[in-house]
Amino acid sequence: MNQRGSSVFCKASLELQEDVQEMNAVRKEVAETSAGPSVVSVKTDGGDPSGLLKNFQDIMQKQRPERVSHLLQDNLPKSVSTFQYDRFFEKKIDEKKNDHTYRVFKTVNRRAHIFPMADDYSDSLITKKQVSVWCSNDYLGMSRHPRVCGAVMDTLKQHGAGAGGTRNISGTSKFHVDLERELADLHGKDAALLFSSCFVAHEFGAITFVDEVHAVGLYGARGGGIGDRDGVMPKMDIISGTLGKAFGCVGGYIASTSSLIDTVRSYAAGFIFTTSLPPMLLAGALESVRILKSAEGRVLRRQHQRNVKLMRQMLMDAGLPVVHCPSHIIPVRVADAAKNTEVCDELMSRHNIYVQAINYPTVPRGEELLRIAPTPHHTPQMMNYFLENLLVTWKQVGLELKPHSSAECNFCRRPLHFEVMSEREKSYFSGLSKLVSAQA
Fold first, then answer.
1. CA-CA distance, 210 to 212, in Å (whole number)?
2. Given 129, 157, 174, 245, the catalytic residue
3. Is residue 129 among the annotated active site residues?
4. Other CB atoms within 10 A of residue 345 CB
5. What pLDDT does 435 receive?
6. Please, how many CA atoms are within 13 Å of residue 21, restricted to the half-sphere of its CB?
7. pLDDT tens per residue across span 152-163
8. Cα–Cα distance between 338 and 63 in angstroms, integer?
9. Required cofactors, per record (predicted)?
10. What pLDDT is attached to residue 439?
11. Mapping DSSP to helix (H, G, I), strand (E, B) and coil, where does residue 419 land?
12. Which tens digit of pLDDT belongs to each residue from 53-67?
């Protein structure tokens, strides 16, 4: 029976009819362009016999709409006076460039097997060079932990790359449930709720809660954060955390009472209307949380804190203006947006060191700084190389060193007199800090 005359075809929707007609046209065009022997030898290696696939791809490529660059107002009615959108956008970008707050992203591919190294493609997407990364939020290197990567790959093979829907529509898997239970246990709460990002998790703020995004995994006997370390988690009504920093994955969560979590689950638009996190990422995050709750996690945290203290001491001994920060992030004040960016660009281009300039609006104008985040995997030798080249670059751009630097209060600027490192930790590094100070 002729397809066009069939009753099924006639009853089909208009969209389906159009699809069938389009496919018939494509098949006809492929047949005409690939006319040849009536017998085709099919390759067993998955090749493309007679170029059929290539011909099909060429045809589909021709059907793509032409890319056209135009101004936004070109699409607006000519009969009315319209706002100059493009001119407005260009002006705002020029303002960012003129005050040196315009952001240019560095293009780097991190190397899992030689963390914290990365391939830098910032100058060219064809050629690359290897750089050391000093500003990553992957504070403990958990994104490349063999068990975490193994869990991700196994789950990817079994369950695919995506979740398949929102949490309410086929997007809740056993991985979601297991990870939420693990996070609730980590913080000593009744329940937890996963979000696609920590930013979405912050939107529900009806009750004051403790933001532990930079602390989970890094502090406390089980990595529960500052509340875990100080023994005050029972006093925290809501804890907000992230899977995208110390745990080395992606996503955010809150942990609280069962009734509050159920209320957020039922009413929070950012949760209800967002596609669920992929099972493969949750499997990796679950493994990461379990590792950092174990003895291995405690070893990683101790090594991390040692490296942070050593790096901070080396920077202060060399006369660099270290801002007192009791966390694992070491800010070095530059107080000039242009020079801050120049320091980072010089370190990257000349010395293969990637450290990030933090300018307005992340910090107030005049408070521009370098954000240095050592990991347990940065060696003392890497720190030595970093400091030597930072000092060279610092002087090169016209910045001054202090005769003696010590941590200072962020408000009154008075020095903070405290022992930065214990004697045991100093002996662990075999006097490297004094050696670097003498060389500087």
1. 6
2. 245
3. no
4. 16
5. 44
6. 10
7. 999 999 999 999
8. 47
9. pyridoxal 5'-phosphate
10. 42
11. coil
12. 666 667 666 666 666
Note the CATH number of domain 146-293.
3.40.640.10
Picking from 76-80, 222-226, 261-265, 298-302, which range would have the lowest pLDDT averaged per residue? Answer: 76-80
- Eight-class DSSP state of 103: -
Helices within 318-408 (DSSP H only): 337-351, 380-396
List phi, psi (to 5°) of 19: -65, -45
Find where tokens 């933001």 sit.
211
Classify 413 in phi/psi space as left (phi over 0), alpha (psi -120 to 50) or beta.
left
Distance between CA atoms of 11 and 17, rounded to whole angstroms?
A: 9
Query: Does the fold of domain 146-293 match that of domain 108-133+297-429?
Result: no
The tokens for 366 are 């005049």
H or E element in which residue 353 lies: strand 353-354
pLDDT at 244 over 50: yes
In the sheet with 129-133, reading across from the earlier edge strand, the strands are: 108-110, 117-120, 129-133, 353-354
d(CA 282, CA 179): 7
This prediction has a pTM of 0.75
> What would you measure as the largest C-alpha separation in the chain, in angstroms?
94
At residue 196, the pLDDT reads 84
Give CA–CA dist 181/202, Å, rounded: 20
pLDDT of residue 119: 96
String of b and e for 289-309 (b: at least 16 CB within 10 Å)?
A: bbbbbeeebeebbebbbbbbb
Split at pLDDT 50, 70, 90, the class of 385 is very high
Q: What is the mean pLDDT of residues 139-147?
A: 97
Q: How far is CA 9 from the centre of its chain?
A: 50
Q: How many CA atoms lie within 13 A of 411 on its CB side?
A: 0
Are 425 and 309 in contact, with CB atoms under 8 Å apart? yes
What is the architecture, at CATH level 2, of domain 108-133+297-429?
Alpha-Beta Complex (3.90)
